[in-house]
């Protein structure tokens, strides 16, 4: 499949994915409700069953739905937490936001990756590698491609934290997910222009999953920390106007 075909496929899948989210959130579904059958959904959305399956698989990776073998697709908790809503409403300048969110992710996400390496299950690995495949094969030539790739990366970081199997940490991470997605929207258009950057971060994400798979908790945390610090260092090195007056940034302590 060439780049154009891949982009068209991803575009169709994204449209169906958004339609499904709208159906779930606007259709009166509650946590635990079963969605219509694949045949009925495909007919109602006027899409092929192959595209529908990929969109449902993406929502499964995102934690919106749960696919149960021989039973169907069920809705997970679709209520947005107060923490997530609060973070979405924050009014922070882009320069301050970039540094502040890196601090939060270093404090929370790096230890979460270490826990994930010690607690992960085979199902966690399946989700992580599935998301990595989508991230690593997603085109990034157009702004739309870059936005979609940023979402796959956000989901990948979310799945790493979920693999820590700490319900309280997962609850806090709902807010972190918002930070990651907003951060990617700000940073990706800049960093993706850097020669070799996409290959570099793809390799970093692969190594993080491999460390989690191998239960090497120190390496998982170390690579994630390296990834976060390198990203912000690259951005601020090329765009010093984005620097803020943040004193004693966490990564320099």
Task: Please explain how this structure is put together.
- By secondary structure, the chain is mainly alpha-helical.
- It has helices at residues 3-26, 38-45, 49-62, 82-88, 94-119, 122-137, 143-162, 167-191, 197-213, 217-238, and strands at 65-68, 72-75.
- It folds into two domains: 3-75, Winged helix-like DNA-binding domain superfamily/Winged helix DNA-binding domain (Arc Repressor Mutant, subunit A, Orthogonal Bundle), CATH 1.10.10.10; 82-252, Four Helix Bundle (Hemerythrin (Met), subunit A), CATH 1.20.120.
- It contains ten helices and two strands; from the N terminus they run H-H-H-E-E-H-H-H-H-H-H-H.
- The longest helix is centred in the middle third of the chain and has 26 residues, at 94-119.
Overall mean pLDDT: 80
Helix content: over 70%
CATH class bucket of the largest domain: Mainly Alpha
User: Helical region count?
Assistant: 10
Task: List segments where confidence is low: pLDDT < 50 over at least 5 consecutive residues.
Answer: 79-93
Task: Output the CATH topology of the largest domain.
Answer: Four Helix Bundle (Hemerythrin (Met), subunit A)
Distance between the termini: 47 Å
What's the structural domain tally? 2
- Count of individual beta strands: 2
**The CATH superfamily title of the largest domain:** GntR ligand-binding domain-like
Please give the largest β-sheet: 2 strands, antiparallel
Topology:
Blueprint: H1 3-26, H2 38-45, H3 49-62, E1 65-68, E2 72-75, H4 82-88, H5 94-119, H6 122-137, H7 143-162, H8 167-191, H9 197-213, H10 217-238
Antiparallel strand pairs: 1-2
Helix pairs in contact: 1-3, 4-8, 5-7, 5-8, 5-9, 5-10, 6-7, 6-9, 7-8, 9-10
